[in-house]
Amino acid sequence: QPHELVTPGEEVNGWGNPMDLFDEPFPDVSTYEDFHTIDWLREKSRDTDRHRKIASRSKESFWEFTKSLLDAWSGWVVMLLIGLLSGTLAGVIDLAVDWMTDLKEGVCLSALWYSHEQCCWTSNETTFDDRDKCPQWQTWSELMTGHAEGAGAYVLNYFLYVLWALFFAFLAVSLVRVFAPYACGSGIPEIKTILSGFIIRGYLGKWTLLIKTVTLVLAVSSGLSLGKEGPLVHVACCCGNLFSSLFSKYSKNEGKRREVTAFTLRSINPFGNNRLVLFYVEYHTPWYMAELVPFILLGVFGGVWGALFIRANIAWCRRRKTTRLGRYPVLEVIAVTAITAVVAFPNPYTRRSTSQLISELFNDCGPLDSSRLCDYVNDPNMTRPVDDIPDRPAGPGVYTAIWQLALALIFKIVVTIFTFGIKVPSGLFIPSMAVGAIAGRIMGIAVEQMAYHHHDWIIFKKWCRPGADCVTPGLYAMVGAAACLGGVTRMTVSLVVIMFELTGGLEYIVPLMAAAVTSKWVGDAFGREGIYEAHIQLNGYPFLDTKDEFTHRTLAADVMHPRRGEPPLAVLTQDGTTVEDVEELIKETDYNGFPVVVSRKSERLIGFVQRRDLTLAIKNARQKQEGVVSNSVVYFTEEMPLLPPSCPQPLKLRCILNLSPFTVTDHTPMETVVDIFRKLGLRQCLVTRSGRLLGIITKKDVLRHMAQMMNQDPDSIMFN
User: Does this UniProt record's set of keywords contain Protein transport (predicted)?
Assistant: First the structure.
């Protein structure tokens, strides 16, 4: 006798109404596993639904109206808190770096927490010529032996300089390795990847914030060829993530959380121009058209240096990843620090902090400057105003400085290759600017002396008369810094805006743009990717760069899975799968989700369900809904299917089903598919023909295909 069928909604065998329990989302649904990509469309839809509910409830009572106002203002509160904490941390880092950098050379007896400059500010016993010398500040040799000069004092200061550097570096790498491995590096490649929708749990966490802040001070103070601007971006984004978690509007939506991070970057400028005002200068001489030639040459140098650095640094980092070298990060940091400190100390331009070096190179020499770079032969009869000093012949101090700067340039070029990427916080902006500023200052002095000694040459005759202030070497240093930074990062317009803020004058936009564009063109001739994109590719992050062009004539059918010879696509049916079948499918596969079809015969697409949501739903149902067992039917339809009365309690999971997954046809050009993934931030899209499911394309499939089309290893597009 046939089993009697049950119509939807009836209470049979004590089932009750099985559709009530999961009509509302349950805890942890719609969350993501670590190292997975978020679904931007889904997050946007969830935020729209949340906003719609708040708006409708705000009319019910005064309390609900107040809650809606608090929700609307939460974004501004988060931004205020981020700004306050980020600014405070940046200030503390700057003060600590200044103090600890000077600690390698000596100590302030009047106040141990004062840097060299602060110590002598408070002294009444300094002279103008020796403004950096005061009895309150003593070098280690003065403090220990009572002698400031002589071979013994030099050796003692040298030894303690290296010792302090090694101590700071060892402490930094140890803290990173033990407490927060994600605190190493600049953080910008990972931040770009996270903003594109990739999940890296803990990368913006509290421990990472704390350890990155502390070790950034230690790493910069050690004298390594690195900067703090890139890591400060990471610190600011950690602040954004920290305060976002306090508000459900952001903590429960990965898309909204990324908005706060992105807004933080736009507000603080991700490339550190709020700190570059340290180098603010004001030039009093206009530039001339003939100077575009050396400016463009600096652009060529910046592009070549950028391409050389990217290739050499990536090769070294790849070697670190694939050989035994990567097993000894502490030893590597100690070795690089030791070499850096030993080579840097004898040269005054490498001994000081890189920020101080850049500031001096950018400076326009005045009559009161005591720097060697300003040791010109002055005319005793000169009566010109102090801001209009004519070009003068270089004195012995200038020539000594040029040789020291040339050695510093070679040193910076080589050591930065091996420093960027070691297991301590390390930024690249300041070292890159230092390389360009050194090259620019040397060229500026060369052009200045040529103009002075050969003012009758045709190239100088029209614009550089004898006794005129024709050439500003500091401007060349700034243009060189922009060129090298552009060569490494491949920025143009944003870079010019940053450098423009250094001068306060619009007249230097053209030289900066000429150098930046030239460096990008030259760099692109060797390879289109900047240093951060190169590290993203090296680490296998699933990042789709908007600058990459895809012009190949392949179709979605060429990229989708399954392909010919591969197992069929793992799918769920809308009402013909049991709990045991679903659990077995989850156990045997590692897919992020599964298409739901009407039946395996028709393959008509209904929707898409995430793997994590399925797992949580079944776990939740077994705990809270009586009667759900392994052979319970799972259904995704609105109405319960007709089932025999002997069947156990069915499980409705329609609430976790995405009824509008993004689909393309099998004949869609891959150029269009790539654009869709870029602009919509898709995690995957399904391939259909006349409504029938054929396959699936994931973000990693797109990245692998693009790599294959560029003759690269497609298997390298894996998170490592």
Answer: no
pLDDT given for residue 60 in this prediction: 86
At 388, the pLDDT band (50, 70, 90 cuts) reads low
Read off the pLDDT of residues 253-272 as tens digits, 9 standing for 90 and up: 777 777 778 766 555 543 33
Count the Cβ atoms, other than its own, within 10 Å of residue 288: 15
Quote the CA–CA distance of 699 and 702 in Å, as a whole number: 5
The C-alpha atoms of residue 293 and residue 307 are separated, in whole angstroms, by: 21
- In SS3 terms, 254-318 reads as HHHHHHHHHHHHHHHCCCCCCCHHHHCCCCCCCCCHHHHHHHHHHHHHHHHHHHHHHHHHHHHHH
**CA 228 – CA 91 distance, rounded (Å):** 12
- pLDDT of 41-82, one tens digit each? 778 888 888 888 888 888 888 888 888 888 888 888 888 888
DSSP state at residue 715: G
- pTM for this structure? 0.83
Q: How far is 388 from 364, CA to CA, in rounded Å?
A: 11
pLDDT of residue 468: 64
- CA separation for the pair 52, 29 (Å, rounded): 20
Q: Which amino acid is at 346?
A: P
Give the per-residue pLDDT at 30: 54
| Alpha carbon distance 465, 638 (integer Å) | 88
Residue 15 has pLDDT above 50, yes or no: no
Contact, 674 vs 651, CB < 8 A? no
What is the residue-wise DSSP string for 476-520?
A: HHHHHHHHHHHHHH---HHHHHHHHHHH--GGGHHHHHHHHHHHH
Residue 126 pLDDT greater than 90, yes or no: no
Place of tokens 């005759």: 461
* Positive or negative torsion for Cα 447, 453, 459, 464: positive
8 Å CB contact between 6 and 642: yes
Strand spans (E) along 337-496: none
